[in-house]
Design brief:
Structural class: alpha+beta
Largest sheet: 5 strands, antiparallel
Radius of gyration: 45 Å
Distance between the termini: 162 Å
Helix content: 10-25%
Number of strands: 14
Number of helices: 2
Number of domains: 2
Strand content: 25-35%
């Protein structure tokens, strides 16, 4: 009888243990760590505009503590980095990323790229000033002859078929200044200035030997020598 009670007791213990173990909830599986996407919040630089070699300070989060295989690109070109932390990167604008209308900056961490951060303060290269075609010197002589004829037609008897000494008095790069001098019974000076452009208009002053202005006027590029009246 005692043996039977002992067996029943043991069986009861096993039943209770099985029930308790069966009611214990399973341990939940750990949730996967969400992907930390790199994010650029702002970019600063010390110069007035951005050009090749400009140092940029990129601020944000989730950059990682070490550069490792992570990269920062500017217009798709990998930039050289001098400092890297989880919230700040210092990098230099690559020469091959410009010229462009904007600079598109992105950070890639563990193969995950950030959204592009666009910068528009790009330095504009100065437009070179075109070199004008020099006016042939014989064209200046034609302007002199036109001025002499105009002066004659206005009643100023400037010597015509004579030898004039031509002197270049130009001092600047944007204009030319020639002076014609005739030494005869009386001295005459013809002063001609014009801008250095492909088709200039000539400003002419004719002086007597006493320095008086005897005739003053314009000779236009398209003019030909008029007939003397």
């Amino acid at each position: 009888m005692k043996l039977k009670k002992a067996v029943v007791l043991i069986l009861s213990v096993f039943v209770v243990m099985a029930f308790v173990m069966g009611c214990t909830p399973p341990t939940p599986s750990p949730s996967p760590t969400p992907t930390q996407y790199p994010n650029i919040s702002s970019i600063r630089y010390d110069s007035n505009c951005i050009k090749a070699g400009t140092q940029l300070r990129i601020y944000g989060r989730n950059f990682g503590d070490l550069k490792g295989t992570n990269t920062i690109t500017m217009n798709g070109i990998v930039a050289a980095v001098s400092y890297w932390s989880d919230d700040e990167i210092i990098a230099v604008v690559p020469a091959s990323s410009l010229p462009a209308r904007e600079l598109r900056v992105a950070v890639t961490v563990n193969g995950v790229p950030s959204d592009e951060y666009w910068l528009y303060g790009i330095c504009v290269a100065p437009t070179p000033t075109p070199t004008p075609t020099p006016v042939p010197l014989d064209r200046v002589d034609v302007a002199r002859n036109i001025a002499i004829t105009k002066a004659h037609n206005d009643g100023v008897n400037v010597p015509y078929n004579v030898f004039w000494i031509k002197t270049d008095l130009s001092t600047g790069i944007g204009s030319k200044h020639y002076q014609y001098t005739y030494y005869g019974a009386s001295k005459w000076i013809i002063d001609i200035t014009y801008p250095v452009v492909e088709q200039p208009d000539f400003t002419v002053n004719i002086f007597s030997e006493w320095g008086l202005v005897m005739w003053s006027g314009m000779v236009y590029y398209w003019e030909t020598v008029p007939l003397m009246e």
